[in-house]
Structure formats: structure tokens, C-alpha cells
Write a structure and sequence with these properties.
Elements: E1 5-10, E2 13-18, E3 36-43, E4 51-60, E5 72-81, E6 84-98, E7 101-111, E8 120-126, E9 133-136, E10 160-161, E11 170-172
Antiparallel strand pairs: 1-2, 3-4, 3-11, 4-5, 5-6, 6-7, 7-8, 8-9, 9-10
Length: about 180
């Protein structure tokens, strides 16, 4: 007897089944979309040659959809020019996204910039494909150290351009129930 094979599409997974029997299990079920996310790495464009990099791995789980302050993850940034500068690692404490724009904040957990550890910083990303833009909470003060008592999920407009060929930020839009 000839057996028919059919292809069943579940989310992004393909399952091959023989006859009418299904090989699907609970682990093959489509995963619930996370409520929001900001991921990726890019260098900023500066004509003076500054080496400025931002990397993000920030997520808001579907179960926490109503509370952006339950976001988890990390982000990092560095700024060097002529061999001098600093870097920082940040633990995420809030993530808000709308369309292709994300605002993430967190507290600096490790840095070689004196006075930065323990400070909250915020970053805004506009996911424009190869032409992403970025802004940060210390834009008007010049340093994360000089920012006083920044609330969660606060940053500046995304005024900086990323360097050509480096923009790979991905923003998953937040869709709260209104």
C-alpha cells in the first residue's frame, strides 16, 4: 500500500507526517511571541573616528506584557577615541517599544568609567534596517555619570546614525491591551 506524506506548517516549524498520523508533540507547538524585545549590535557613525558600539539583548516576556519594568537582559556600550575611553555593561530594568522604536533602561553593573556603576542609563533605538538610529539618556550631559536620578525607560530621541553596514538592531513591538 502506498503511503502519502504531507507537510504541516506550525509556526515556523515544518513537520513531516505519514498518512493521517501526526508526529506533533507539545514541544512542537508554536511558541508564544514575547511581548517586546530589542536585540543587535551596531557602531555609531562619527566623522572624527570615535569607536562607539552599542549591543542589546533585552526582552519582555509575554506573561509580563502589562509591566515593562519586568524586562530582562543586558546591554553594553563603549566609546573610544585615540585609545582612550570607557565601556559599560548594564542590567535591563525596563523595555518599552512602539512600532520600530525601543526605549530600554538599566543600571550599570560593570564599567571602567569612574562613577558609572550603579547609575541608571537609557537608550532609544529606531530600527530602520540598514540605517538604524540611536539616542541615549546622557546626550545632553555628556556622560552617564552626570545624569541625576534617571527614571526607568527614559532616554533621548534617536539622533545618532549607525555606521554603514553595522545597523542590525531588531525591535519587537510591544502591543499592550488598551
Amino acid at each position: 500500500m502506498k503511503r502519502r506524506t504531507k507537510i504541516v506548517v506550525l509556526g515556523s516549524a515544518l513537520l513531516l507526517t505519514a498518512g493521517a498520523a501526526s508526529a506533533a508533540t507539545a514541544s512542537d507547538a508554536p511558541r508564544q511571541r514575547e511581548a517586546a524585545a530589542l536585540t543587535g549590535t551596531a557602531r555609531l557613525y562619527r566623522s572624527a573616528g570615535d569607536d562607539i558600539t552599542f549591543s542589546f539583548d533585552a526582552h519582555l516576556a509575554a506573561k509580563d506584557k502589562a509591566d515593562p519594568s519586568k524586562a530582562t537582559g543586558t546591554f553594553a556600550f563603549s566609546h573610544y577615541l585615540n585609545g582612550e575611553g570607557a565601556r559599560a555593561e548594564v542590567k535591563v530594568d525596563c523595555l518599552l517599544t512602539g512600532g520600530k522604536v525601543a526605549v530600554v533602561s538599566g543600571v550599570v553593573t560593570e564599567s571602567d568609567l569612574p562613577g558609572a556603576e550603579g547609575k541608571r542609563v537609557g537608550v532609544t533605538v529606531h530600527d530602520l534596517g540598514r540605517h538604524d538610529r540611536l539616542g541615549y539618556s546622557w546626550a545632553s550631559t555628556g556622560s552617564p555619570v552626570d545624569t541625576k536620578e534617571l527614571p526607568k525607560c527614559v532616554s533621548s530621541a534617536p539622533f545618532e546614525k549607525v555606521a554603514k553596514g553595522t545597523g542590525d538592531f531588531t525591535v519587537v513591538p510591544w502591543q499592550p491591551e488598551l
